[in-house]
Design brief:
By secondary structure, the protein is mostly helical. It contains 24 helices and no strands. It has a single domain, classed as Sodium/glucose cotransporter. The radius of gyration is 23 Å and the shape is globular.
């Protein structure tokens, strides 16, 4: 396949067909979307299969496909610890957190903080989530998608020059995803996610098989020239990639925030038709998260042998596509990449719009009709789309897409994780302590960030720890801060105020009237067992 024209006509037809299907789904769903509840939560009608595949598709996005392969190429497969840990975290969330979210009929995750603590914590966390959704998730998806398209079409819009062309492609991607998201809302997002999940799995599996085929399907041959420890999940403490301590104390923290508290992910669970479907969907999503090691991470690691001199780790996955795949297969994989791009952008735009509308606009204008709420949500989506498209090109200044995402979150999420964990499991935690922990914890995070960066306050930073270890330390400090402030500030909450919002005097209930294989406890044990087997195999 010629590098001057890597996309054949058949591939373009496949990609165009994908776009037509997506817009057809968006059009059909948009005609049935009237109220804000339809737009933001799909009318609370989602079944477990839809939830599980949508969780997978929205997470296994262009940022993941590009970022995982790039970090595996650069530092080995330990980056997949973020992936299998998701299964553990989703099981934990399905058992302990989903019941409160569903029974409280939440529209947004910050809404739980108002019910459990006060409106200050809700507004603070909602604002933080909007920021992370737009600046990290949406912009990251647009950047990764632009990087891919520029690889295949270096001069996509002739005459603009490299810089303006990059901005133009960012806007085009944001516009495409923004239009059908604004029209169809969460329903359009999750139903296109089902299609996208299938394409992602097929496309990624195809490129994994082709990559392994370059070594005659010989594990010994594929691993012979890789650096020592490149195929080990647990790395030494001085590892640049992901040290073992970071896997134990930091990755669970980041995973808990992402899968349990991140509106753009949990919104699918909130849209479930009932508690059983919400739990089953979360566990299915956790099971699917065991696949990326084999279909996304290992190909990136093997690419170290095939292409040792790539200019940037983020170019690994696009290079594998252009160099190895035959005509037709490129179209499938490109459709998968575009599906990933759309899935990330549409999901984060919809969730950020939901938070702004439900947590900030609607409380100040309670007389809004459901149709007016939907209109405001659509306008908000378009505004956020423009902002994310403007920010996306700035991500080029970071060493890698995956590092950009995870390092930023490591400083932002510890106070939030602390107040949710203690809020659910410690009834004595109060609103004054929660707000003090959010504000004080982020002040501490900013201070640690300044001390951990070379060239800001110091020529050489005095704190030289991996960002996952920093996330674990900050979370421990925030847990302590929350305990102290809850005991010394404000008053204890009344028992009736927290009875339905905490695990006080509760047990893990046994589901009634379902077959053994539908028991969420059996499903959870299966996911955890497969996870343990995978860790042992690649330790």
């Amino acid at each position: 396949m010629s590098p001057d024209f890597p996309i054949a006509t058949l591939d373009l037809v496949i990609i165009a067909g994908y776009f037509l299907i997506v817009f057809a789904i968006g059009y059909v769903v948009a005609r049935q979307t009237e109220s804000g509840d339809d737009l933001f939560l799909a009318g609370r009608s989602l079944a477990w299969g839809t939830i599980g595949f949508s969780l997978f598709a929205s997470n296994i996005s262009s940022t993941t496909m590009i970022g995982l392969a790039g970090d595996a190429y650069r530092m080995g497969i330990a980056v997949s610890n973020y992936e299998w840990m998701a299964g553990v975290v989703l099981v934990f969330i399905a058992i302990f957190f989903v019941p409160f979210f569903i029974r409280s009929e939440l529209s947004t995750i910050p809404e739980y903080l108002e019910k459990r603590f006060d409106v200050r914590s809700r507004k603070y966390f909602s604002g933080l989530t909007i920021f992370t959704s737009v600046v990290i998730d949406t912009a990251g998806g647009i950047y990764a998608g632009t990087l891919v398209l520029k690889t295949f079409f270096p001069d996509l819009i002739p005459g603009l020059g490299p810089e303006l062309d990059f901005y133009a492609v960012c806007f085009i991607l944001a516009l495409i995803a923004g239009v059908y998201t604004a029209a169809g809302g969460l329903a359009a997002v999750v139903y296109t996610d089902i299609l996208q999940a299938v394409i992602l799995l097929v496309g990624s599996t195809f490129i994994a098989v082709i990559t392994f085929g370059q070594f005659d399907f010989s594990w010994a041959q594929a691993t012979a020239q890789l650096p020592e420890g490149h195929l080990s999940l647990m790395q030494p403490m001085d590892s640049e990639g992901l040290p073992w301590l970071g896997t134990l104390v930091g990755v669970p923290i980041l995973g808990f925030y992402y899968w349990g508290l991140n509106q753009y992910i949990v919104q699918r669970i909130l849209g479930a038709r009932d508690l059983k479907n919400a739990r089953w969907g979360a566990i299915l999503g956790g099971a699917l998260k065991l696949l990326p090691l084999f279909i996304m991470v290992l190909p990136g690691a093997f690419a170290f042998t095939l292409y040792p001199d790539l200019s940037s780790p983020d170019m690994v996955f696009p290079t594998l596509v252009t160099e190895l795949l035959p005509v037709g297969a490129v179209g499938i994989v490109m459709a998968g990449l575009i599906a990933a791009i759309m899935s990330t952008i549409d999901s984060t735009l919809n969730s950020a719009s939901t938070l702004i509308t439900i947590d900030f606009i609607k409380p100040n204008r309670p007389d809004l009709t459901p149709e007016q709420v939907g209109t405001i949500g659509r306008i908000t989506t378009i505004v956020l789309m423009i902002f994310a498209a403007l920010w996306a090109p700035q991500i080029r200044e970071f060493p890698g897409l995956w590092s950009y995402i995870q390092s930023v979150l490591s400083y932002l999420v510890p106070p939030v994780v602390a107040i949710f964990l203690l809020g659910v499991f410690w009834p004595r935690a109060n609103g004054a302590g929660a707000f003090a922990t959010l504000t004080g914890g982020h002040a501490l995070s900013i201070l640690v960030f300044l001390f951990a960066q070379d060239g800001l306050l110091f020529e050489q930073a005095p704190i030289e720890l991996h960002f996952t270890i920093i996330a674990g330390i900050l979370t421990a400090l925030c847990l302590g801060l929350f305990v102290v402030t809850s005991l010394t500030l404000g008053t204890p909450p009344e028992p009736e105020q927290v009875d339905d919002l905490t695990w006080a005097n509760r047990i893990i209930e046994r589901p009634e009237g379902v077959a053994w294989y539908k028991d969420y406890r059996v499903q959870s044990a299966a996911v955890l067992g497969l996870t343990v087997a995978m860790i042992i195999a690649f330790w």
